[in-house]
């Protein structure tokens, strides 16, 4: 989940989502329309599918894209349906975890056709909930799953309170009013005030591009998601749980417990809150590369056990 004014603004001295990269803007077929993506192109090694969180976008992975290419990987970062440059239906029911996960499964199959190497799936925040849904739907498709700043079940804590106010604001003034309210909230935080103007302008433009139905549907999904940790563990797909040391969405303690229950690798990323890929990209990259390098080769015709 990425909200204007949230404490993802912990490292204001760079352009983060506007970081330069060599990826090309492309689209892939989705279940409800085209999915906008940044694609670094074919590579000899693995392919990494990167999924943004609530109100986020593919640009949340911008600082990682060129380094992933340098490491020999293909990176594909997407806007989920209804986010930023991906159109979406007008029905909030079309934004359930099941529907969103189906988009990832379809895209995963397409990426599998385009390369023989491993396919690693990473979901940030709510994107992790959706990515988990994709792995549960088709575990044999993915060689690994990374849950980055995500959780075992519905969102709790301070950020949940923001979602509780979302529907009344949308009723009163649509996406525009929500954006204005969040920007006013952001300006009470010195860290948000220090974010460079080009980045603030991008975040506003991106938020205003969100589908209203998508905001409603995804928010409902985040507030009702059941605990599916045991189901994920049973798939045998290798999992990395990684999060910022000061995550303010799902707490570090909750995520550590999830990692224990999964038998997963667990990494805490310093100098990061809820968006390690833009707050501490160097350490995030190293954590990811170390994990992917350690994922065992897939046995013929099956998932890892």
Measured distance between first and last alpha carbons: 31 Å
Largest sheet: 8 strands, mixed
Helix-strand pattern: EEEHEHEHEHHHHHHEHEHH
Query: Into which percentage range does the β-strand content fall?
Result: 15-25%
Stretches with pLDDT under 50, minimum 5 residues: 1-12
Classify the helix fraction into a percent range.
40-55%
Query: Strand order of the main beta sheet, please?
Result: 1-2-4-3-5-6-7-8
Counting H and I runs of at least 4 residues, what is the number of helices?
Answer: 12
Question: What class do helices, strands and sheet pairing give?
Answer: alpha/beta
Kindly provide the radius of gyration, computed on alpha-carbon positions and rounded to a whole number of angstroms. 18 Å
Which geometry do the CA atoms define?
Answer: globular
Report the count of strand segments.
Answer: 8
């Amino acid at each position: 989940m990425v909200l204007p004014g949230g404490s993802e603004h912990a490292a204001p001295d760079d352009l983060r989502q506007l970081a330069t990269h060599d990826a090309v803007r492309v689209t892939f077929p989705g279940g409800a329309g085209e999915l906008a993506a940044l694609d670094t192109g074919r590579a000899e090694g693995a392919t990494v599918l990167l999924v943004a969180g609530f109100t986020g976008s593919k640009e949340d992975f911008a600082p990682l894209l060129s380094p992933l290419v340098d490491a020999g990987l293909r990176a594909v970062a997407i806007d989920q349906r209804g986010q930023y440059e991906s159109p979406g239906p007008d029905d909030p029911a079309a934004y359930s975890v099941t529907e969103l996960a189906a988009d990832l499964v379809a895209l995963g199959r397409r990426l599998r056709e385009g390369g023989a190497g491993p396919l690693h799936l990473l979901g940030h925040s709510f994107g992790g909930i959706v990515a988990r849904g994709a792995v549960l739907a088709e575990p044999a498709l993915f060689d690994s799953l990374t849950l980055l700043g995500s959780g075992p079940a519905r969102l709790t804590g301070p950020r949940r309170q923001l979602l509780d106010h979302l529907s009344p604001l949308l009723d009163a003034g649509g996406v525009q009013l929500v954006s204005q309210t969040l920007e006013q909230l952001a300006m009470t935080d010195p860290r948000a005030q220090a974010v460079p103007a080009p980045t603030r302008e991008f975040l506003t433009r991106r938020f205003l591009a969100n589908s209203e139905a998508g905001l409603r549907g995804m928010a409902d999904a985040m507030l009702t998601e059941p605990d599916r940790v045991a189901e994920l563990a049973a798939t045998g797909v290798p999992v990395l749980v990684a999060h910022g040391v000061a995550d303010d969405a799902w707490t570090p303690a909750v995520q550590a417990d999830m990692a224990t229950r999964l038998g997963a690798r667990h990494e805490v990323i310093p100098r990061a809150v809820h968006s390690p890929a833009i707050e501490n990209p160097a350490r995030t990259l190293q954590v990811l590369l170390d994990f992917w390098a350690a994922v065992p080769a897939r046995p013929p015709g099956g998932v890892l056990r």
